[in-house]
Design a protein that fits this description.
It catalyses: 3',5'-cyclic AMP + H2O = AMP + H(+). Belongs to the cyclic nucleotide phosphodiesterase class-III family. The chain has six helices and 14 strands. By secondary structure, the chain is α/β, with parallel strands linked by helices. It has one domain: 4-Layer Sandwich (Purple Acid Phosphatase, chain A, domain 2). The strands form three sheets. The chain has a seven-stranded mixed beta sheet. Strands 6-5-2-13-14 form a five-stranded mixed beta sheet, with no helix packed on it. Strand 7 and strand 8 form a beta hairpin. The N and C termini lie far apart (about 40 Å).
Length: about 280
């Protein structure tokens, strides 16, 4: 057994599980640190405030990596402090910018769950680590794939939501798709043998994305700071505002989802930037 499973309940009589995803907060030790002109603590702060207003009856929050930009302990403490204001339990996985040992220590010390497998009556959620040491692209290790196999084999009738930092299908930005999940074909072939619904949810690409490929629904979501311009081969920032994603998982395997954003021009990046 490699899975450590936590029950995932629904607050609703209908049994619908409501989740929110927050991703790519890119926080610094300094609350005034900025990424390409966007002060990431302040933009995350604004997103969390908006989440507090909009969220009703959320059963869990999925934090899908790149929580820190400078890998400092303090950056993770800022994240923890904001999450403490949200009532639902938070679950997390690392992104390429995270320093996993520091992240784990800080989130653990704050009492945030280390669970990576959440089990509801009809759905299971698996949070996978796609960090490839020292690389911007991602890869699922044999250990992570073993967790996936175990989830599929043990709960073959449960609908499956896999959360992972890197995109498993190209989003259509050449500069960004070079930093993809390298062994996405292995993930796809494992998912093909799962007969219930399957959804893969990622961060990393700082944009909304929602497409079905070979029976799997692939979702990506805005960052709480800078946004990347969709369908751009070269690095380009987008005018859309920071945001988060809300997901409703229905007992029959359907999933409805919505991207929420701050008002337009809430945080304007430096559009002359060519990378970071
Ligand atoms: N101009 C660029 N060309 C290619 N990759 C870039 C460029 N600028 C930044 N990156 C990397 O691409 C990554 C995509 O999202 P990340 O937040 O992981 O961090 C980004 C950088 O590591
Ligand atoms: Fe990121």
């Amino acid at each position: 057994m490699t899975l450590s499973t936590l029950p995932l309940g629904s607050h609703a009589a209908s049994g619908v599980i409501e989740l929110s995803q927050i991703t790519d907060t890119h926080l610094f030790a300094s609350i005034d640190g900025d990424l390409l002109g966007v002060p990431t603590w302040h933009s995350c702060r604004a997103v969390v405030n908006a989440m507090k207003e909009e969220m009703t009856g959320c059963d869990g929050i999925l934090a899908t990596g790149d929580l820190s930009q400078d890998q400092s302990a303090l950056s993770y403490r800022h994240f923890v402090a904001m999450m403490a204001e949200l009532a639902p339990p938070v679950f997390w996985l690392p992104g390429n910018h995270d320093e996993a040992p520091v992240m784990q220590a800080e989130l653990d010390a704050a009492g945030i769950s280390q669970a990576k497998h959440l089990l509801g009556e009809h759905w299971q959620v698996l949070l996978l680590d796609s960090q490839a040491q020292g690389e911007t692209c991602g890869r699922l290790s044999d250990g992570q794939l073993a967790m996936l196999d175990e989830a599929i084999d043990t709960y073959p009738h449960h609908h499956l939501l896999v959360a992972v930092h890197h995109q498993a299908v190209p989003v259509g930005c050449a500069w960004l798709d070079q930093h993809n999940l390298r062994n996405a074909d292995v993930l796809q072939s494992r998912l093909e043998r799962h007969c219930a619904s399957k959804v893969v949810l990622c961060g990393h690409v700082h944009q909304g994305f929602d497409e079905v490929r070979q029976g799997v629904r692939y979702l990506a979501s805005p960052s709480t700071c800078i946004q990347f311009k969709p369908l751009s081969d070269e690095f380009a920032l987008d005018h859309t505002a920071p945001g988060w994603r809300q997901l409703s998982l229905y007992p029959d395997g359907r999933l409805s989802t919505r991207v929420w954003r701050l008002p337009p021009d809430a945080f304007v990046p430096d559009f002359s930037a060519r990378g970071y």
